[in-house]
Write a sequence for this structure.
């Protein structure tokens, strides 16, 4: 029983970061119809920016976080303007392949610059965990959960409460009509991609101090993000948020009670099962077809 | 027409690369992971190897020629490691090699040694299979996990271990350690509980740790490399998991653990094969100090020496073999390995026969030390 | 006359490839690179059937390659596996050639199953389902240690032995023998693809790629067409995987690496998807590029070059090198080569 409680607490902590990983990816797909294969690389870049801010600039973690998010925002905007804007109107396969190429360049670039030795980002929180009944949880991870939920909330508010969000939603519905209504679709695309990238970088920045910062950290994170996004339905932000928690639960229980070796398989098995029964994800809106 | 140009260039360049093997050098192939999961460790080993090569060249080289290391990256991938061995042997014509860090990598290379009859010095791998499968071209200076377990056996009762769980990498390195230590512990009357595994790239082990937290064992033995150990110690602290921890495998790099895991590493114990913190207690204090001084002079982190000394000793052992052979030819070097005898940084290096008769592999028996992290420093535990 | 003309470039290429070892002499390193390149090129040819002719971007293609490799290796090595409920599966080693056949069959069967499952979805969903499938297969290979040895790799896989009644047998141990084996299998695969896309079936595939609803309205059975393409494609990938296993004589779960799929996709896209020559040209270039780059730059820099080349090709020659060059050489008879030129005008 105690073990189950610990697994559930872990689920909550892990799920928050998974949700953060998922929404950036799903946002870009929903609005731009682009599968962002640079998501994992941007996650890695976010983590390295935090490391640089803490190690080289001497900032503390709370200040390093906005630095990483800003970096992700700028890098995302750059990728969109240089690579995606000229390809607008090309089929989704072409943009996917270009994104794969960009992902390879970014990932190998971080390895080239920083080398293969993992870096640690010091945590400002006490080492001793918080005890909740039989379960324990570290203060750092509680902070990460809080920050992730805050970022998810901000993304929501931005989409649903602001003019930019309105324009994004209009573009999501129908880009041509939105353009006719005076929405500058090009700006919306850049803003969307930048935002999605910033969220990926934020996830990396938050998890960097929890794990270690490593050039290969993006690969598994990206695959998880894909699983989460399919679970929730491509393009569905709420779905991705819930999908993050479902994946975390499946992994925790799978590793705890089935076999730790198959922990990472859980996400993919879920994807296959979901697509067998509900090909457009668990929370897909009726009008979205793949 | 970029396509046609590239193809022509590719073939030309490859041809140029393939006609290497200059006559005025003695070449040693180095097959290490420089990218991928083990990139950090492989790089340390290569840097240690370079120190040994420079030292030998400063003393006039080998057989009157310059010693040249041909360093290739096996990308932490077994198939790639086999391909690299093939390249080193057939294209670079290296008569002897050092490699390939991990057990899975080394096992992948071994059939190539048989095919081409070229010897290899194994500097890091710990799987028992490497020296028991009947490959007469393998000479190992790192301890297999059975040897490590054997050296650790006398300490078991002093530590008061009653029941042990294992958390190991899901590969030959990890599973091999769990099997060998498990066997030794059972013989000592210690109970063996859970054996949990983790993938080498895994970052979040909280699920496995939650399971271990719930078990009634008093000790967790962990086999993995340093990056994952740092994560494990942090996550154990976060879960409030307070059992005795002993790590095995010789790739722990305690200084990096102290620097990166901080107080989460307090009280953890590690079986290592080198004592750079206490050079006066090593078998050859002077050599240890020289090596560490040179390592620091080159601007490498002190933390790396627990890996890099193996690269250093490995190249030195190969150089001894080449000198004894009197010529840089595979068969002569393979034969000369049996007469290598000198004091390495972690004990005498001389090869004992291991494996099926007639095609034995060579296994050297290095010292194994149990160290503890206390107040952010490495100490020898009082037993 | 025009038929002969179009048969000329492939025949010339085949002749050149057959003569290449003579020109190289006995350079085992280059021969090794050519063999591995050839095997990956067969993989790329099989991927082209899906990606180029039906327009389905399968990023899990490596799964079939890996399944072929493991089936073939395990057939020839034998295994003894506990299945649970007291059941054991014991298999004595069979000849490697049988492994090759079983690899083709098994991969084809997996292609059928996965095809039925994943062709229910299109576009991004299809891509992500195929990636997931490959990951699951990789994790099974990694974790079912009793069968696959997990990360310890299956080693000492025997080389393929060919036998003809009355003529004796020979085991393909040397590089030269393996080179011609790969060339022979590759040529065979070429003919299979050429037959397939040249026939009525090929038009059905291209019809689906260009305009699925139109194709459906003229009576093309989408699921059946795609499934047949998937089975043939997977079987060919399985054959390539089997060659890989028996040539390298070691396989580990890394054969399922996503980057290998990316490599094959690059070969197809750069060479020219939907053309017969495309994957071969792309395969040769991108298979040998690492060999050329290895001595001049660090591994991570090589990957940066790879990524950049992929991006540049997609921008500069979106249809690939072969159609691009063909367009340069002769602009006129573009319509007269339905087999070489899939769909010049992209839909949408």
């Amino acid at each position: 029983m105690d073990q189950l409680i610990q697994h559930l607490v872990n689920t909550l902590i892990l799920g928050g970061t998974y949700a953060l990983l998922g929404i950036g990816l799903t946002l870009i797909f929903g609005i731009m119809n682009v599968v962002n294969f640079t998501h994992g690389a941007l996650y890695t870049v976010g983590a390295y920016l935090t490391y640089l801010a803490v190690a080289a600039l001497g900032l503390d973690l709370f200040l390093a976080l906005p630095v990483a998010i800003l970096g992700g925002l700028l890098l995302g905007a750059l990728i969109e303007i240089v690579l995606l804007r000229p390809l607008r109107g090309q089929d989704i396969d072409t943009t996917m392949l270009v994104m794969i190429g960009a992902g390879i360049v970014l990932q190998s670039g971080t390895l080239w610059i920083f080398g293969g030795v993992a870096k640690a980002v010091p945590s400002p929180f006490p080492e001793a965990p918080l005890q909740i009944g039989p379960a324990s949880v570290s203060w750092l991870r509680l902070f990460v959960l809080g920050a992730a939920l805050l970022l998810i909330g901000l993304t929501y508010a931005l989409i649903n409460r602001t003019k930019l969000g309105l324009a994004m939603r209009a573009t999501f519905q129908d880009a041509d009509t939105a353009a006719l209504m005076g929405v500058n679709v090009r700006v919306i695309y850049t803003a969307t991609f930048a935002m999605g990238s910033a969220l990926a970088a934020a996830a990396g920045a938050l998890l960097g101090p929890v794990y270690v910062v490593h050039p290969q950290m993006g690969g598994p994170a990206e695959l998880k993000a894909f699983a989460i996004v399919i679970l929730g339905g491509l393009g569905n932000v709420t779905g991705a948020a819930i999908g993050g928690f479902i994946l975390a639960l499946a992994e925790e229980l799978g590793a705890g009670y089935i076999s730790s070796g198959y922990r990472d398989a859980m996400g993919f098995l879920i994807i296959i099962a979901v697509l067998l029964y509900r090909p457009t994800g668990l929370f897909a809106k009726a009008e979205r077809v793949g | 027409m970029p396509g046609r140009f590239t193809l022509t260039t590719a073939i030309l360049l490859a041809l140029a690369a393939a006609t290497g093997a200059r006559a005025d050098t003695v070449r040693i192939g180095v097959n290490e992971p420089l990218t991928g999961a083990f990139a950090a460790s492989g790089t340390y080993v290569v840097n240690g190897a370079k120190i040994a090569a420079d030292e030998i060249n400063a003393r006039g080289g080998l057989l009157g020629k310059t010693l040249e290391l041909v360093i290739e990256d096996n990308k932490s991938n077994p198939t790639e490691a086999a391909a690299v061995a093939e390249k080193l042997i057939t294209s670079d014509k290296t008569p002897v090699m050092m490699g390939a860090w991990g057990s899975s990598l080394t096992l992948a290379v071994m059939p190539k040694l048989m095919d081409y009859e070229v010897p290899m010095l194994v500097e890091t791998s710990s799987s028992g299979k490497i020296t028991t499968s009947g490959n007469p071209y393998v000479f190992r200076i790192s301890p297999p996990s059975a040897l490590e377990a054997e050296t650790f056996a006398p300490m078991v009762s002093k530590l008061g271990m009653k029941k042990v769980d294992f958390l190991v990498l899901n590969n030959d390195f990890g599973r091999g350690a769990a099997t060998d230590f498990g066997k030794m512990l059972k013989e000592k009357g210690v109970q063996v509980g859970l054996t949990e595994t983790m993938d080498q790239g895994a970052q979040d082990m909280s699920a496995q740790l939650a399971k271990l937290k719930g078990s009634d064992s008093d000790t967790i033995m962990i086999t993995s490399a340093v990056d994952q150990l740092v994560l494990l110690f942090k996550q154990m602290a976060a879960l409030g998991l307070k059992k005795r921890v002993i790590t095995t495998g010789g790739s722990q790099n305690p200084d990096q653990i102290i620097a990166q895991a901080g107080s989460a590493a307090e009280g953890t114990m590690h079986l290592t094969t080198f004592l750079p913190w206490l050079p006066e207690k090593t078998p050859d204090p002077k050599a240890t100090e020289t090596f560490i001084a040179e390592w620091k002079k080159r601007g490498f982190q002190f933390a790396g020496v627990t890996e890099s000394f193996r690269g250093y000793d490995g190249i030195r052992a190969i150089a001894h073999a080449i000198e004894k052979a009197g010529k840089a030819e595979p068969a002569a070097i393979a034969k000369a390995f049996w007469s290598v005898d000198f004091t390495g940084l972690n004990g005498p290096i001389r090869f004992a026969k291991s494996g099926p008769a007639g095609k034995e592999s060579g296994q050297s028996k290095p010292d194994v030390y149990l160290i503890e992290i206390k107040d952010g420093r490495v100490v020898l535990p009082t037993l | 006359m025009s038929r002969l003309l179009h048969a000329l470039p492939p025949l010339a290429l085949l002749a050149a490839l057959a003569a290449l070892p003579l020109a190289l002499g006995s350079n085992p390193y280059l021969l090794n690179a050519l063999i591995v390149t050839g095997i990956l090129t067969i993989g790329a040819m099989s991927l082209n059937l899906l990606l180029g002719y039906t327009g389905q971007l399968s990023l899990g293609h490596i799964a079939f390659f890996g399944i072929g490799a493991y089936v073939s290796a395990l057939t020839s090595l034998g295994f003894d596996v506990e299945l649970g409920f007291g059941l054991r599966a014991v298999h004595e080693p069979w000849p490697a050639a049988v492994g090759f056949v079983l690899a083709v069959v098994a991969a084809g069967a997996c292609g059928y199953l996965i095809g039925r499952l994943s062709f229910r979805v299109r576009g991004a969903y299809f891509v992500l389902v195929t990636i997931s499938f490959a990951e699951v297969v990789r994790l099974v290979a990694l974790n079912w240690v009793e069968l696959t040895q997990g990360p310890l790799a299956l080693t000492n896989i025997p080389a393929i032995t060919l036998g003809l009644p009355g003529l004796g047998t020979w085991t393909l141990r040397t590089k030269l023998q393996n080179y011609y084996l790969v060339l022979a299998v590759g040529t065979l695969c070429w003919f299979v693809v050429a037959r397939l896309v040249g026939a009525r079936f090929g038009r059905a595939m291209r019809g689906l790629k260009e305009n699925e609803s139109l194709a459906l309205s003229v009576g093309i059975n989408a699921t059946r067409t795609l499934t047949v393409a998937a089975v043939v494609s997977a079987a060919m990938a399985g054959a390539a995987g089997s060659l890989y296993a028996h040539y390298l004589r070691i396989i580990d779960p890394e054969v399922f690496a996503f980057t290998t799929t990316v490599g094959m996709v690059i070969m197809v896209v750069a060479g020219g998807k939907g053309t017969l020559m495309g994957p071969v040209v792309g395969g040769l270039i991108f298979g040998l590029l690492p060999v050329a780059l290895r001595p001049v730059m660090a591994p991570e820099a090589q990957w940066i070059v790879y990524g950049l080349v992929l991006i540049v090709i997609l921008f500069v020659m979106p249809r690939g090198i072969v159609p691009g060059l063909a367009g340069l050489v002769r602009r006129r008879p573009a319509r007269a080569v339905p087999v070489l030129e899939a769909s010049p005008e992209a839909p949408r």
Confidence is low (pLDDT under 50) at residues 332-348 of chain C. Residues 11 and 17 of chain C are 10 Å apart (CA to CA). Residues 2-17+31-336 of chain C form one domain. The first strand of chain C starts at residue 79 and ends at 84.
